[in-house]
Amino acid sequence: MRKALSAALLICMVTILSASLMPTVLAKKSEYVTGKWTYMAHMIPPVPAKIVGDNVFLNTWEDGIWSGGIAGVSIDAPCHIMIHGTNVWPPPSFDYRLFTAISTIKDCTVDGKTGGLVIFCAGKAEFGKEWHGAWVILSGTGGLKGIHGQGTWWGMGAPGPEAWGFVEYQGWIR
Questions:
Q1: Are 145 and 138 in contact, with CB atoms under 8 Å apart?
Q2: Using one digit for the tens of pLDDT, what is the confidence trace for 74-97?
Q3: Residue 47's domain spans which residues?
Q4: How many domains are contained in the chain?
Q5: Which CATH number is 73's domain given?
């Protein structure tokens, strides 16, 4: 229960942070970015980390490819997924899933500049519906030092671990 509340709190914090930063970003020279975040999730270990009541907690990492306004190859770790509504693994059905991840792109290109980028992502998906979430840039290095940005992402994602999937993203950077 504490982890579910923590995950929900993280999603709320990202949403509030995104909303509070948007006027600042828009007040300065900003660029609208769109693209795809393609990824493959890998389970750590290949079983649930924990089952508590109707919640299944998973730890994963992902190979990622960002294309579009933010471009580069990422390692997304740590990733945490909480599946609510089942205590069976693998889940035949569920009420919803929560997701958080830190995406690190070592050789990233944004607006013609290159460097490293660290992005925090959080999201939710209800059973049978697509994922939707928010992202915020935590830091940049090299030509991306001092970069700021945030936005949203959405899509069906990967059908499961060890399978490629993607979500689309949009947002503002400066």
A1: no
A2: 999 999 989 898 666 666 678 888
A3: 2-173
A4: 1
A5: 2.40.350.10
